[in-house]
Specification:
By secondary structure, the chain is an alpha+beta fold. The protein folds into 4 domains: 121 residues, Jelly Rolls (Sandwich); 96 residues, Jelly Rolls; 97 residues, Jelly Rolls (Sandwich), CATH 2.60.120.740; 96 residues, Rhamnose-binding lectin domain (RBL) (Jelly Rolls, Sandwich), CATH 2.60.120. Helices cover 18% and strands 33% of the residues. The chain contains 11 helices and 20 strands. The longest helix is centred in the first third of the chain and has 13 residues. The radius of gyration is 26 Å and the shape is elongated.
Length: 412
């Protein structure tokens, strides 16, 4: 979408948004009311910096509009940002609809547009030579593994001091690496990885291998809910993990519209019971509704107009693959397992194929609809559970096919 030339006379809102964009090197998109557009970061992930559905200038989305529809340049909607972050953050792309039905109408009679500033966060790469260890660290963000392989695909990585015959094979692939690494790392701020056959098995005997991991660090999201209002945290298919929460006031800029000075003066209004309450309502759920009110959180500072400030992560599910005839353990430490999906069968031609003839891996439409119920019964609510990928446990959904047990789960 083309950028429009800005007028020399900029409103305060436009100046703030412009300064934000210039300081972060972010991408800007304007979507006129009634239209749709897609934010796309390719292999990177979206991190929304700011968003507003309203109007802050008289140059954007004005074609064919009468003056009275573009006159109001102070049309701000503070709920836009948390809504857009919930729809887009951590995804490689997201579709947005600039409409009152999505964002409500902040200024009746004004022709609005959705203004979004966002960064594309490129994935990071780590190579761990066989026999060594390393830690993926995302600070306050959470890890989301994009791809992983324990093997060898080139002759330049981890070659120091190695004879030629140990680095000759550059087609050494291990399809079970990705689900194993995601189960160990996804949703954590850091995780330690050991590049060894004991962890990943040996996909190519005699080759000196390395663990190659590509991952993103997904920043936490922030939502502010003004006193007396409600909002929903939404993580799509991921699970909510609350980082911090406070019902009170710590600044004089949030939720101040129409409020007298004495109601926003106190910026040291803290409520230590907010965090455990919000975590109990939201953690482990894909979405949760929150009501910013004294009846829920009590009143930490009488006479001050408060807001509920929540910082949270969306944690992608972990995955585990267990080849037929083998066993594995799902482990959530002190958290509890919540199975999202599971299938004992085969849906691709690359997983658990080593040493198998084509006739045993050709059927990629082998589904067992009772798997989810069985795995959930064995694992949900436990901190760990052992699973055996066998016909005796799940029955045989496709005779003659070499199967595997695929499980997607979260730790809550």
């Amino acid at each position: 979408m083309s950028r429009k030339t800005m007028s020399p006379r900029l409103t305060l809102g436009a100046l703030i948004l412009l300064a934000c964009c210039m300081s972060t090197g972010a991408v800007t998109t304007d979507i006129c009311e009634g239209q749709q557009a897609t934010l796309n970061c390719g292999s990177s992930v979206i991190n929304v910096v700011s968003a507003n559905y309203g109007r802050t200038d008289r140059v954007t989305c004005i074609s064919g509009r009468p003056r009275h529809q573009i006159r109001n340049t102070n049309c701000l909607n503070p709920t836009t940002f948390p809504l857009v972050t919930s729809m887009c953050n951590g995804h490689t792309s997201c579709s947005l609809d600039a409409s009152n039905s999505v964002f409500s109408d902040p200024c009746y009679g004004t022709y609005k547009y959705l203004h979004v500033i966002y960064n594309c966060i490129p994935p990071m790469t780590t190579d761990i030579c066989e026999g060594q260890q390393a830690t993926l660290n995302c600070g306050s963000s959470v890890i989301n593994v994009v791809s992983a392989n324990y093997g060898r695909t080139d002759r330049v990585t981890c070659v120091s001091g190695r004879p030629r015959h140990q680095i000759r094979n550059t087609n050494c692939l291990n399809p079970t690496t990705f689900p194993l690494v995601t189960s160990m790392c996804n949703g954590h701020t850091s995780c330690s990885l050991d590049a060894s056959n004991s962890v990943f098995s040996d996909p190519c005997y005699g080759t000196y291998k390395y663990l190659h991991v590509i991952y993103n660090c997904i920043p936490p999201m922030t939502t502010d809910i003004c006193e007396g209002q409600q909002a929903t945290l939404n993580c799509g298919s991921s699970m909510i993990n609350v980082v911090s929460a406070n019902y009170g006031r710590t600044d004089r800029v949030t939720c101040v519209s129409g409020r007298p000075r004495h109601q926003i003066r106190n910026t040291n209004c803290l409520n230590p019971t907010t965090f455990p309450l919000v975590t109990s309502m939201c953690n482990g759920h894909t979405s949760c509704s929150l009501d910013a009110s004294n009846s829920v959180f009590s009143d930490p500072c009488y006479g001050t107009y408060k807001y509920l400030h929540v910082i949270y992560n969306c944690i992608p599910p972990k995955t585990t693959v267990i080849c037929e005839g083998q066993q594995a353990t799902l482990n959530c430490g002190s958290s509890h397992i919540n199975v999202v999906s599971a299938n004992y069968g085969r849906t691709d031609g690359v997983t658990c194929v080593t040493g198998r003839p084509p006739s045993q891996i050709s059927n990629t439409n082998c589904l067992n609809p009772t798997t989810l119920l069985s795995v959930a019964g064995m694992c949900n609510g436990h901190t760990s559970c052992s699973l055996s990928a066998s016909n005796s446990v799940f029955s045989d959904p496709c005779y003659g096919t070499y199967k595997y047990l695929y499980v997607s789960y979260t730790c809550t």
